[in-house]
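User: These chains co-purify. Model them together.
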Amino acid sequence: MGRERAVALVSGGMDSSVTLAVAQREYEIAALHLRYGQRTEGREERAFHDLADYYGIATRLVVPMHHLSLIGGSSLTDRSIPVSAADLHARGVPSSYVPFRNASFLSVGVSWAEVLGASAVFIGAVEEDSSGYPDCRGEFFAAFERAAVAGTKPGTTIRIVAPVLHLSKEEIVRMAVSLGVPLRLTWSCYQREDRACGMCDSCALRLRGFQRAGVEDPIPYVTRPQYANT
Amino acid sequence: MGRERAVALVSGGMDSSVTLAVAQREYEIAALHLRYGQRTEGREERAFHDLADYYGIATRLVVPMHHLSLIGGSSLTDRSIPVSAADLHARGVPSSYVPFRNASFLSVGVSWAEVLGASAVFIGAVEEDSSGYPDCRGEFFAAFERAAVAGTKPGTTIRIVAPVLHLSKEEIVRMAVSLGVPLRLTWSCYQREDRACGMCDSCALRLRGFQRAGVEDPIPYVTRPQYANT
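Assistant: Joint model of the two components:
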């Protein structure tokens, strides 16, 4: 008898690559990637395919999603709002927050899981040491899982699994190294597609994680500020 | 001070037209329509604009959504699965069920509502006298509303409102007439865009509702079987 199936959301960043590495040890994976008009969508899609190739995943789906950029409200998808330089001590919800984005992502994941007969949807969200996005909280994922039980065919049970939710970026880097995740294939920068900018929130969180873990980040950067003690 | 805002999902069918009529009496409406690869998407979009014109709604968003037809699993979006003739006594989930579709619709609605500062998302779902879709149950909407509270910015409260959820189609026709809803502008057929087929589940439910209410359906049909006593 074959293994159980799971859908894994793979953005191509560090968190989703570790999530994928965890998921594929236990499940037969169907890999899902969303292009939602984010500035670096081409580079992220390449990272998605590189990771899926690395893990030998044949069942893949890339979904173009237009509404998040049509709706706007985020510096990630709305070119009229600049990507701010990192401020790792800022409070509140940052300008890069894409309103209720993860609900759209999980809805696609659960729809596909229901058709495939998969029993879980993996997502690489991080609650702590992250950016204060409301749709990255464990409370949200638990509520969404209940909605998935209520809104799918009787007898369907699809769990929402976020294995790195409570890890810091430093712990995620260590976990990636111990699982042999090919971090050179991942992409996290919000702003550039050739070399990571080193300055946006996502680069700052990533670099700080590597620096605190004492590991060198294998991807190219325009600049690599020291964030370890910030 | 202006009225509170709400997002209304308007497919262009009878149920969403009555929902819109109810919503616009209390709220300033932003009207949302999803093109998701259903067979009759062009005709439904026309009905959406005709209804929005009728109610004088300027704030509109039409979102193309590709994943539901990419994922398949439904006769509405997958051309390899035929639309079955109506069987109003069938049990279980019919072939026209689009897996977890309403979660995707509501996710877009809540994202837009969060950006607009709207306090409700209206959806024209019908639980009873309907087709047994799991994502049309009150239990699902209540669970999704809790996910929307958990997954949006602190202080955001967006209610999910389904005013026709517990009505029969007969009651919906009567309500449409009493509210003066322009039913001639609506479209419900799953299969055709010129004249309604009269044979699919959606046509059968609609015609039965009109026949039981003793009202003539103003849209053109290829054939109008008698469903009143079925």
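The helical segments of chain A are 14-26, 41-54, 67-71, 101-116, 138-151, 169-179, 201-213.
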